[in-house]
């Protein structure tokens, strides 16, 4: 038998508290945002459904495809695998924050130039990941393909493909994506 509260109502459960919400504030694309969210809301759903930034895509919703990749405090993450409330005070960059149609980010422009997309569904995650990959290499962060973990990684084809392996393109535009990233890497050195 379920116990009733003093007024005859069922006692509050933890899921009731989660639905009432939790206040969370973070910066998205340079703009401060404040939301009251169910504590179970993923960062992906907060961005798409509450901030109305639909450039970040929901692909597999299991962290396997990379369509939801965003940059949080300079590090790329799968936004479907993290809760929004875990990002209090964080700085988040989505595809919308990288460039504008009249002033594209160099990576966006390179993707257009090299036809680094076909259906385009994975493109926002690919571009966010590619931007972060170049920053990882610049910072000297090794990957599984790095030959020497004590020296600064170089942007080889194997290194690039390893780092981008978490972003899947069902259309198979990988060579074009690699060409676009290499072009941006060359122009930024």
Please name the defining characteristics of this protein.
5-stranded mixed beta sheet; 189 residues; 5 strands; 34% helix; alpha+beta; single chain
Summarize the structure.
The protein is an alpha+beta fold and 189 residues long. It has seven helices and five strands; from the N terminus they run H-E-E-H-E-E-E-H-H-H-H-H. 34% of the residues lie in helices and 13% in strands.
Topology:
Blueprint: H1 14-20, E1 22-28, E2 31-37, H2 43-50, E3 69-72, E4 75-78, E5 91-93, H3 95-98, H4 106-113, H5 123-138, H6 157-163, H7 174-187
Detailed description of the structure:
There is one protein chain. This protein has helices spanning about 15-20, 45-50, 95-100, 105-115, 125-140, 155-165, 175-185; strands spanning about 20-30, 30-35, 70, 75-80, 90-95. By secondary structure, the protein is α+β, with helices and mostly antiparallel strands. A hairpin with a 2-residue loop joins strand 3 (about 70) and strand 4 (about 75-80). Helix 4 (about 105-115) crosses helix 7 (about 175-185). It is globular, with a radius of gyration of 20 Å.
Please give the oligomerization state of what you see. Answer: single chain
Which residues sit in consecutive blocks of at least 5 with pLDDT less than 50? none
Q: How far is the first residue's CA from the last residue's CA?
A: 70 Å
Q: Which strand-content bin applies to the residues?
A: 5-15%
Specify the overall morphology: globular
According to DSSP, the number of beta strands is 5
Helix content: 25-40%
Mean pLDDT, to the nearest integer, reads: 91
Order of helices and strands: HEEHEEEHHHHH
Estimated structural class: alpha+beta
């Amino acid at each position: 038998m379920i116990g009733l509260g003093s007024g005859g109502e069922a006692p509050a459960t933890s899921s009731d508290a989660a639905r009432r919400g939790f206040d969370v504030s973070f910066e998205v694309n340079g703009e401060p945002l404040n939301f009251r969210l169910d504590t179970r809301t993923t960062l992906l759903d907060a961005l798409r459904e509450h901030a109305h930034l639909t450039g970040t895509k929901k692909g597999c919703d299991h962290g396997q495809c990379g369509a939801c990749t965003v940059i949080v405090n300079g590090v790329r993450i799968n936004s479907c695998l993290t809760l929004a409330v875990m990002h209090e005070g964080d700085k988040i960059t989505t595809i919308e924050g990288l460039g504008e149609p009249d002033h594209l980010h160099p990576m966006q422009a390179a993707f257009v130039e090299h036809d680094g997309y076909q259906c385009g569904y994975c493109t926002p995650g690919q571009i966010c990941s590619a931007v972060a990959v170049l920053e990882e290499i610049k910072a000297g962060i090794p990957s599984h393909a790095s030959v020497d973990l004590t020296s600064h990684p170089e942007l080889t084809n194997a290194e690039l493909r390893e780092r981008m392996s978490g972003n899947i393109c069902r259309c198979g535009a990988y060579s074009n994506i690699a060409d676009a990233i290499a072009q941006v890497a060359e122009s930024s050195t």
